[in-house]
Amino acid sequence: MPINDASGVSPSFQVAADLRKRISRGEWKVGERLPGARALADEYGVALTTIVRATDELREQGLVETRRGTGSYVAQAPAVLQWDNDRYVRSASPGAAATDPFDRVDASIWTEAAPEHIARRLKIESGAKVSVVRYVWHVNGQPVQVSTQWEPLALTAGTPIETPVDGTKGNPSVAERFRSIGITVTTIEERTRARMPDADESRALHIGAGIPVVDIERTHLAGDLPVETADIIVRADRIVLTSTHTLQTEGGSDQ
Description:
Elements: H1 11-24, H2 37-44, H3 48-60, E1 64-67, E2 71-74, E3 81-84, H4 87-91, E4 104-113, H5 116-122, E5 129-139, E6 142-152, H6 153-156, H7 174-179, E7 187-195, H8 199-205, E8 213-222, E9 225-235, E10 239-242
Parallel strand pairs: 3-10
Antiparallel strand pairs: 1-2, 4-5, 5-6, 6-9, 7-8, 8-9
């Protein structure tokens, strides 16, 4: 692949994109060694440092692993989250078994005055006290999702759910937690968009150049009352969103 110097895209990014494509086509199988840096530099007609930067990017994306003294090898396929459109219905069922693929979660919990945009989403006064929990979720040791969740302390203070859960498997869902204090969640709203990550998200999720994120703004409501809102950020190369829609024909049967 010739490097396009007029494209405005850095040579290392172009090389990384082409190597990523070649790996996805199966030119090198999992566990196979990529050609050495000098051989790749000759093939692409670039400096050795360009190849080093390109393979560093692939390593950050979980596509290759570098073994000291022997080179870079194709890694196991990155972890993929598969979310379907009934996941909240299933997780809200009492006693539902956890089905998420996460094998580790790091949680930080604190309280703060609600920023204006969060206050709007929770329909509370700006500056009102909220509990906050930030999770970094891992699959196979790789961070794949960061989520920050806010709950109004006007609803939870002095109750058993005042402190958010730490994300350990078996923790109750948001709906279950609020049900335990007599508040029934009736609706979960989500707004989903794709965008490029900011610097903090790139660091937290080990994202290399050119990888977008899926940004989900979620709110749990009891009737018209928001009881929780969250920003969920997932690496776009680690998630598949699936939906199933049943269409009814006249008479109530499917076609």
